[in-house]
User: What shape does this take?
Amino acid sequence: MKFIKYFFPFILFLALMVLLLRGLSLHPSEVPSPFINKPAPSFQLPSLFDRNKMTSNQDFIGHVTLLNVWATWCVVCAEEHSVLSEIAKNSNVVLIGLNYKDSQAEAIKWLKKRGNPYHIIGVDQTGNSAIDWGVYGTPETFLIDKKGYIRYKQIGPISPQTWEQKLKPMVEKLQKEE
Amino acid sequence: MRIFFIILLFFSFKVFAAQDIYQFDSIQKQQRFDALTSQLRCLVCQNQNIAESNAALAIDLRKQVYEKIQKGENDQSIVNYLVERYGDFILYRPPFNGLTLALWLGPFLFLIAGLSYLFYYLRQSKMRE
Amino acid sequence: MFPELGRFALILALYFSLVQALSPVWGYYKKNSVYFKLSKMAVIGQFIFLSFAMLSLIICFINNDLTVLYVREHSHDLLPLIYKMGAAWGGHEGSLLLWCLILSAWTLAFSIFSSLFHPDQTELQEKILMVLGIISFGFILFLFATSNPFQRDFPDNVIIGNDLTPILQDPGLIFHPPMLYFGYVGFAIGFAFAIAALIEGKLDKEWAAMCRPWIILPWAFLSLGIVLGSWWAYRELGWGGWWFWDPVENASLLPWLSATALIHTLIVSEKRSVFKGWTILLAIVTFALSLIGTFLVRSGVLVSVHTFASDPTRGIFLLSYLTIIIGGAFLLFAARIKYFYQAPHFKLFSRETFLLVNSIVLLSAVATIVIGTLYPIILDALNAGKISVGEPYFNTVFIPIMLPLLFLMGLAPHMNWGQQSFSDILKKLNFTFFFSLILGFFSPLLLGFEFHLLTGLGLFFGIWIILATIQYAYQIFRTQHKIPLQNWSMIVAHLGIAIFALGITINKSYSTEKQIKIAPQESVQIAGYHILFQNLATSKGPNYKSIQADFLINGTRTLTAEQRLYTAHQEFLSKPGISTNIWRDIYIALGNSISDDSWSVRLYYKPFVRWIWFGGIMLLIGGFMSLLNYLIKRRVVKHEIH
Assistant: This one.
């Protein structure tokens, strides 16, 4: 069947179409985190409400944590805030905030106005700690297990569906781990 | 919907920071800075390197590269630092490893294969005459 | 009113495209030539109504009709009139309408001129109109299904327009997309020719002669479109770059490369009756690449500064359309290509072989760009991680692949058809070869510049092509006492590539750049030029505020660099000041203010940068020469027949 070679362009083309079809359901500009299933990068930042108090990786040990990177100038973070408040109320996952390249005074005002769902908030004014975590935008949220390992990174805001369908099951699974 | 939020997230950056100009004490350091920053991707832009972007993250990353050059780190260690945190996606020059073998060698293989097939085919026809 | 009229015009255009596609089929069964005439009338009808639709859209912009969603997203009350008109094709829906209109314009041109110059080829023309009708129908359907430019939305509150992105508010916007589309879309005709040939089971000299202008003209327009895009980016983006290997730029280069290969195999098919299979394949591939490019820009599959806002349903529609049209074409190819097989009757060392090598190298270049552009998607789809493939990759891989071609370009015109003696060609060209080698590698040294291997290589290839081509021209002149227009077109086009290569080589090797802090009345040196920062002024435009910095070069010429703030969305845009002459550009971009009076400024010295675009323009001229030659020849033939 030497005429098989004439089908070569057709087969190549079909492979290309399949690839492009698959490409439609991908997110080409999302950067995956290289820290999945690895220990969280070490950090130590002053707390937003008390400069003398520090938050660090120690705060992850013993429970499941959501580290949420946010700022007052981030429009979408305001929308995410209500979802975070619900999570703080209805779940026993610990919410830790990372206030990213922001004004402390503004951040305090922002939280006073909307309520504070965070157990503690670290202030990263320069953005250097965030770079250590591979943060490239806001909001971003890291799911950290009891041993301080990062298990999942949420890029973009947590919507109610994202919480119900994706994060909540993962949190519950991790809470059962030792 | 996701895409909408991500685009919104990009526009959350209001860049009013002054343009950073880094002075180096040697021309090699300047060249290294230019070469490195032109090969690192600005992760919040739509296809720009950090040398040319004015996004806040690009400015921060440029600062990191500058500080590391001044501290005496070599190019490989600076690149490793960023790849550890952001993955291979931050490199505009893809790494050469098992996964990217087809990428780097593919074009040349294609050319060689095409030319080989051509000469083989013409030789064959010549013999048939 | 106009949105509704526009929409209605689109509906009529859709029906006309259906008539255009189906009449030839019906005419084949009824064996009646009136159906061919009907098809041609449908072509005219389609063009009239698509023009009207486009005009309606432009009127909506001029009237600032914000109830039309598309106008609201891309326009603003204060937007200057000319950009309101350009905005009509600045967004996805409008640009698609432009695509359909240009396809219709090409179809009309084909319908008129091919009948004029080849009145006896009605069977071929019918099939071509049928294929073009099917393509039109699909695209207009796409407009209806997912991308209606006339979509209306009546909001409850007062609304203002979203404004056109500042970077698009430039004359380049008016011309760059239409030129590109005249290129991309024009290749549909070549595609239709190929399908017609496959259906008929034959490809003769008449087919090849008839087809040629319909490949060369879109190719020339595409060359111009790419040049305009590059020149526009150079002026707008403020970093002095002219090519970024951005996915959308790559998408426009792909059909250009394939079409270049096609032009060459077409010549051989016409003159020597071989390469018919290649010609047909390349004609299909070229249009396929145009469509794939259209897909990539609109589907969200790639991230690029150029992409239109994406929507997965558009992607799915385009993919289905692509699969049907191109997949169908490749299946037809597989089934029928055996009828075109011709045993090669040329020797291994001959012009034919080298032209085949030309096709293979160009297709390798296409493969390179496709691999590089799609590789991130491949890895991501296989869950193997995410990588970026950018400029460093393409520069490293693409250039070596293209180098053999630069060498062949000088060599191949001197080769004989059928058989070329190796010693003959050696004798003919060895002086030229060594002279170019020496000149290329040593001229920088002679002129006092540093020596770089790659610079020498680039100069060698450029000079080699120029000298070998001039030698070829001289030879023709010696034997024929004139140079026919057909040969001129090749000479000009090849010289264009040489000038392009020289421009790139010198620009890349000897550009310099400075980033500094500077206050008015201070000065700086770059590349031997003395630049004085004269003064700063503020001014206003129709929809922006601007700060203008004047610079004096060597005490004689003034340059103004601007920083604009567009009021609609508080977006900044830096407009560099450029001083141009044939040998270099001095390029100054204004950054942000650093203190009370200091500013950050970037200065660039860019030697030979205009050569890059001038080379592209020469390609355009070469293409038009070939077209002129075709017209003259056809008129002569016409006169002879009568």
